[in-house]
Amino acid sequence: MPMQTALQYPHAGHAVPGAIVQKRAIAFIDVPTRFKKGQTVFSEGSAALHFYEVVSGTVRTSQLLKDGRRQIDAFHLKGDLFGFEASALHRVGAEVVEDATLRIYQRSQLERMLAEDAEFAQRVVAAMMHAIERAQSHMLLLGRKSALERIATFLLDMSGRLSEMSHLDLPMSRSDIADHLGLTIETVSRTLTQLERKGVIELPSHRRSIVLRDRIALRRLDA
């Protein structure tokens, strides 16, 4: 019978009770660890000793500007890998948007993991390519798109990542959306209301629920 233990991680609320340690041929441990909503996974400027995989929940990565404003560069959802850095320090911080379970991998083992686990290597490469793609799209969005276009792009992206269904239950707040899109929260609310009046979306009573009524109209704005 395999030995059971729990991985203790300094930023985690608690380890998964009785989690089974999975030891692969490359001798690293990936025990799913729970984080509570609002909890810090790692801080901007902290040592980049680990990278992470989202098993469930949502994590945001962001930077604080000198004047205190926050820029959210990405939302990481189920299956996403994040926390890779070119330097020894994290250039962004990571916080949990909703209760999340993460796998925590040692950065020092990355080269060995890539060399000895072809499937994992493919996932890492795919994650990095998606990150580059999203960063390029985000740069274009912030630099050239109007508020209406930014919201349309965001809704279509979240629809593709969360579900292909028309009903979206967004895990992030409107404040998070604003800080991701480079808008004020008032502009986000006003733009969503504008799209609802045009019949493009519907805003149920729950503030984080959005129904996409006209994807074609959204795609025209996203073009």
TrEMBL record:
<dbReference type="Pfam" id="PF13545">
    <property type="entry name" value="HTH_Crp_2"/>
</dbReference>
<dbReference type="InterPro" id="IPR000595">
    <property type="entry name" value="cNMP-bd_dom"/>
</dbReference>
<dbReference type="InterPro" id="IPR050397">
    <property type="entry name" value="Env_Response_Regulators"/>
</dbReference>
<keyword id="KW-0805">Transcription regulation</keyword>
<keyword id="KW-0804">Transcription</keyword>
<dbReference type="InterPro" id="IPR036388">
    <property type="entry name" value="WH-like_DNA-bd_sf"/>
</dbReference>
<dbReference type="InterPro" id="IPR012318">
    <property type="entry name" value="HTH_CRP"/>
</dbReference>
<protein>
    <submittedName>
        <fullName>Helix-turn-helix domain-containing protein</fullName>
    </submittedName>
</protein>
<dbReference type="Pfam" id="PF00027">
    <property type="entry name" value="cNMP_binding"/>
</dbReference>
<feature type="domain" description="HTH crp-type">
    <location>
        <begin position="145"/>
        <end position="216"/>
    </location>
</feature>
<dbReference type="InterPro" id="IPR036390">
    <property type="entry name" value="WH_DNA-bd_sf"/>
</dbReference>
<keyword id="KW-0238">DNA-binding</keyword>
<dbReference type="InterPro" id="IPR014710">
    <property type="entry name" value="RmlC-like_jellyroll"/>
</dbReference>
<feature type="domain" description="Cyclic nucleotide-binding">
    <location>
        <begin position="35"/>
        <end position="83"/>
    </location>
</feature>
<dbReference type="InterPro" id="IPR018490">
    <property type="entry name" value="cNMP-bd_dom_sf"/>
</dbReference>
